[in-house]
Specification:
Its EC number is 3.6.1.23. InterPro entries: dUTPase/dCTP_pyrophosphatase, UCP030140. This protein is mostly helical. Helix content is about 70%, strand content about 0%. The chain has six helices and no strands. The protein is globular and about 45 Å long. The model has no long low-confidence stretch (mean pLDDT about 95). It binds deoxyuridine-5'-triphosphate (DUT).
Amino acid sequence: MDWSRLFTMQKNLDSYIESNHNLEGKNIFQEKYLALLVELGELANETRCFKFWSNKPRSNEEVILEEYVDGIHFILSLGIEKGLIFHSEVQVLSSKSETEQFNEVFDLCVMFKNQPSQENYNRLFISYIQLGKLLGLSEEDLQNAYLKKNEINYERQNQGY
Ligand SMILES: O=c1ccn([C@H]2C[C@H](O)[C@@H](COP(=O)(O)OP(=O)(O)OP(=O)(O)O)O2)c(=O)[nH]1
């Protein structure tokens, strides 16, 4: 997986959004952090993995993938804010349940916010990829869905979203 290509695309998109909203030079780490937590919550909601009280089925894979790539955008963007990058590594499959994996990602978000080191960034990134795998998303799915949403994000900016 060529994450460096996605980092470059994210950097360009972030700059475009910032200039469109007159945010150049402003520190928007806190906003992006909260945005990531919200996206994670939205993703968890679509999987319904924690809804032990309900029998309603989860959303289809396309919806889950769309929510998942919004999270990828903000994880890339938070790394860029801190001058960090993630390089592909051999991934270990998680033995956790989906719910446990979501909770691990939330924990690692908090750790990264409080101590934005390269090590904590790698741990967050790997945990999020593991979550994707648990949800049945391949790295190819992720890359293609990212490219699609990246383009939509430009279109939305151009439409005064
Ligand atoms: O600096 C930024 C700000 C936003 N985004 C992207 C990430 C994500 O892909 C999208 C925001 O999520 P979404 O499309 O769900 O936006 P929303 O405003 O929450 O959507 P809705 O109006 O449907 O609730 O914008 C970035 O990449 N960089």
